[in-house]
Design goal:
It contains nine helices and seven strands; from the N terminus they run βαβαβαβαβααβαααβ. The chain is α/β, with parallel strands linked by helices. The protein has two domains: 209 residues, 3-Layer(aba) Sandwich (Rossmann fold), CATH 3.40.50; 37 residues, no CATH class. It has a seven-stranded parallel beta sheet with strand order 3-2-1-4-5-6-7, with helices on both faces. Helix 1 crosses helix 9, helix 3 packs parallel to helix 4 and helix 7 crosses helix 8. The chain is globular and about 50 Å long. It starts with 8 loop residues before the first strand and ends in an 8-residue tail after the last strand. Bound molecules: nicotinamide-adenine-dinucleotide. The site of nicotinamide-adenine-dinucleotide has 29 residues, from helix 1, strand 2, helix 4 and helix 7.
């Protein structure tokens, strides 16, 4: 199916790694022009090389999504260079804590929510004037099944993602009249650097054997008997970013191998 993205410009946050990178590559494969955001230019470099190797028109936009002025300045530069931002994918996030809420540091909780929830709001705030003026746009937010079903030891992270779910639905109601859709994709456990870092920390605490046993238990909790790969989420994002999804807004789609089946 042609996703009709070939004349579109997309901005993907947190695209220097993991799921964000897979989304950038998938949208590039559909012939979109891709702007790769991450914290630093160096952090964008590997994704840019992969895109260039596929002849995708691309560039880096290094900024911290939790800083509104940085987001606004970057969006202005991108709009000047490419004419417009047609699709925004908010994927940047951090997990600093994996302790119980009682043992977590308030400043770590704040940072997790600043990057995910406020980062999503800031980037969205920056692109909306252009999308509204052109009466079209696609916003896709990456949330998490940790928010949909709850996740111990990721309380602040999950709360930020829960906030994005509410933001997605409420904003969809406001901007639908301007031809802008707002949806969210909700992965469950996905094999990325973020998850591997969490596993390494766990391994230091519990030992490699205990972590391997836990991983096997997790795999069996998935009806499809595997955790996600970044491309699984990217496929759903590509559809929602396309004109094929023009009558879908305010929806939250889990891509989770059946791990949870929220009503
Ligand atoms: N991996 C999983 O198991 C999993 C599960 C559910 C949801 N998710 C979500 O998927 C998305 C991508 O996660 P991932 O696993 O690919 O993580 P990742 O750590 O591999 O990639 C996240 C990227 O975001 C960047 N980033 C962090 N803070 C930033 C900031 N302030 N400004 C700009 N960029 C910033 C990081 O540098 C990194 O490159 C996140 O929203 C995450 O919450 C991941």
């Amino acid at each position: 199916m042609d996703m009709q993205l070939h004349d579109k410009t997309v901005l993907v946050t947190g695209a220097g790694s993991g799921i964000g990178r897979a989304i950038a590559l998938a949208l590039g494969e559909e012939d979109a022009s891709v702007v790769v955001n991450d914290l630093t230019t160096e952090g964008c470099e590997e994704s840019l090389s992969l895109l260039r190797a596929r002849n995708v028109r691309c560039c880096a936009a290094a900024f911290d999504v939790s800083q509104l002025q940085q987001a606004k300045a970057a969006v202005k530069d991108i709009e000047n260079a490419f004419g417009a931002i047609d699709v925004l994918v908010n994927s940047a996030a951090v997990i600093i804590n994996n302790r119980s809420f009682m043992d977590s540091r308030p400043e770590d909780c704040e940072r997790e929510i600043q990057v995910s929830l406020f980062g999503t709001m800031h980037c969205t705030r920056a692109v909306l004037p252009g999308m509204t003026a052109r009466a079209c746009g696609r916003i896709v937010n990456i949330v998490s099944d940790a928010a949909r079903v709850g996740q111990e030891k990721e309380v602040a992270y999950s709360s930020g993602k829960g906030g994005i779910i509410s933001f997605t639905k409420s904003l969809a109601r406001e901007v639908g009249r301007h031809g802008i859709t707002v949806n969210a994709v909700s992965p469950a456990a996905t094999d990325t650097p973020l998850r591997r870092t969490l596993l390494a920390r766990m391994s230091e605490r519990l030992g490699a054997e205990a972590v391997a046993a836990r991983e096997e238990k997790i795999r069996k909790a998935y009806p499809l008997r595997r955790i996600g790969q970044p491309g699984d989420t990217a496929a759903m994002v590509t559809f929602l970013a396309s004109s094929r999804a023009s009558h879908i807004t305010g929806q939250i789609y889990s891509v989770n191998g059946g791990f949870a089946m929220p009503g």
